[in-house]
Design goal:
The chain is α+β, with helices and mostly antiparallel strands. The protein has 14 helices and 14 strands. It folds into two domains: about 190 residues, no CATH class; about 130 residues, no CATH class. Helix 10 crosses helix 12. One of its GO terms (molecular function) is transmembrane transporter activity.
Length: about 425
């Protein structure tokens, strides 16, 4: 525990040549400032990229049928086949670690032929035949009405949930949507809800709001799909990886459709969990780079402080000699020098953290007034853990900066010091 006299001596020593002290402290300030800004920028980029997923169940994959590339059991390569609803049941029964197995069908498409009619208005939209679980895999906000439920599936109800983009194109402003009818490829469906998709759908935010969801069973019946499944969205349970489970799913499909066990081209898939893991790995690497660069810059400031403390020790040779002659222990001398080094490091470092925090707050203030839906950057920030880490780095740096000067100070012999002019 240091007394008031010790602290007065520390402040007096550091302010004896205040201009030199400020220049020295600037190196540490700049180093910690760069570290915090780099970490905040990395977090902002990470937030922007992950926002693009829109809260999707990332432990998922999407799977569709392709043409087999190998003949098997008398069947030729290059033949076409389709998933069936029986495949869905088999997957659910034989792969217990799956949370959702959602069969999906689709028709139409953005920029394609007009497939939806309401009165005199027509439009081209993606129409999906889905089960209720899909809202958990591709989260969306229901802005009015409701989403598909299992009563709709069981009764094959011709009902539809439309996106806000469809509503804007097919309805007049303020016109009631719920309970109205739209005609999809000549079949009437009653609108029971509207939605707004989360995220920007990989840069296609407008298209994401121009989709229509109908019950899978009604879709199959209305558009003569029978037992055909166009593709599937499959999500694994928490604690399980869809990347590790998908081989079991593929084996079931291959067995059901007489596909060669080693034919990896017969089933197309997009592993969202694998892609998300790559993104997470990228941001871990970016954080490591930020720490590396920031600490290198900080190190240059620490070297400056160490040099200044060596000069201070040299200038105070007489003082140290007198203190030693009066009975000051080596630990007291060492502690005084180390405390001065740590104090200067922490003060300059906290100033750097405060400056960086102000810059981050200003950036966030500017972003609040902007449309960031199309930006790959959002809410740059640093959490408490980063601040604690920065403080830890500062304390360790201060100790390292003062260690050599402190050792030099205790090596000074009282008699030699008193002879020094």
């Amino acid at each position: 525990m240091f007394s008031r006299d010790n602290w007065s001596e520390i402040i007096e020593a550091l302010t004896a040549n205040w201009f030199r002290t400020v220049l020295t402290a600037f190196g540490v300030l700049w180093g910690i400032f760069i570290l915090v800004i780099l970490l905040a920028a990395g977090k902002g980029l990470e937030n922007g990229v992950k926002k693009d997923f829109g809260g999707m169940a990332t432990n998922s994959m999407f799977m569709w049928a392709q043409t087999p590339s190998k003949p098997y059991k008398g069947l030729p390569k290059g033949r076409r086949y389709n998933f069936k609803t029986s495949d869905v049941a088999a997957i659910k029964q034989n792969v217990p670690d799956l949370r959702y197995v959602s069969p999906r069908n689709q028709l139409g498409g953005f920029g394609g032929a007009n497939n939806v009619v309401r009165g005199l208005k027509t439009g081209a939209f993606n129409v999906y035949g889905d089960y209720p679980e899909v809202i958990m895999q591709e989260p969306m906000d229901i802005t009015s009405g409701r989403f598909i439920n299992y009563s709709d599936i069981k009764d094959k109800r011709k009902v539809a949930i439309i996106g806000e983009g469809v509503r804007k194109d097919m309805y007049e402003p303020g016109e009631e949507v719920i309970g109205s009818y739209i005609k999809i490829n000549g079949v009437n469906f009653m609108v029971i809800g509207t939605y707004k998709k989360k995220g920007n759908n990989n840069g296609n935010a407008e298209e994401a709001q121009k989709q229509i969801f109908v019950p899978f069973t009604a879709f199959s019946q209305a558009f003569n799909m029978g037992e055909t499944v166009g593709w599937m969205a499959i999500t694994a349970n928490d604690g399980s990886s869809i990347t590790e489970l998908k081989s079991q799913v593929f084996d079931i499909i291959k067995s059901n459709h007489s596909i060669h066990p080693e034919d990896d081209r017969a089933i197309g898939n997009f592993d969202l969990y694998q892609e998300f893991s790559k993104i997470n790995g990228l941001f871990v690497a970016l954080k490591a780079v930020a720490y590396f660069v920031g600490i290198l810059v900080l190190l240059s400031g620490i070297i400056g402080i160490s040099n200044i403390m060596l000069i201070v020790v040299k200038e105070r040779t007489n003082e140290i000699g007198i203190r030693r002659a009066l009975g000051a222990t080596p630990w007291a001398i060492r502690g005084q020098i180390l405390m001065e080094s740590i104090f200067l490091t922490i003060i300059s470092g906290m100033a750097g953290i405060a400056l960086a925090t102000g810059i981050i707050a200003l950036i966030n203030y500017q972003l609040q007034g902007m449309d960031t839906s199309e930006m790959m950057f959002s809410n740059p920030s640093v959490d408490l853990g980063v601040v604690i880490t920065a403080l830890t780095i500062l304390i360790i740096s201060g100790l390292l900066a003062g260690l050599i000067p402190a050792q030099n100070a205790i090596k000074i012999q009282p008699v030699d010091a008193l002879r020094t002019e």
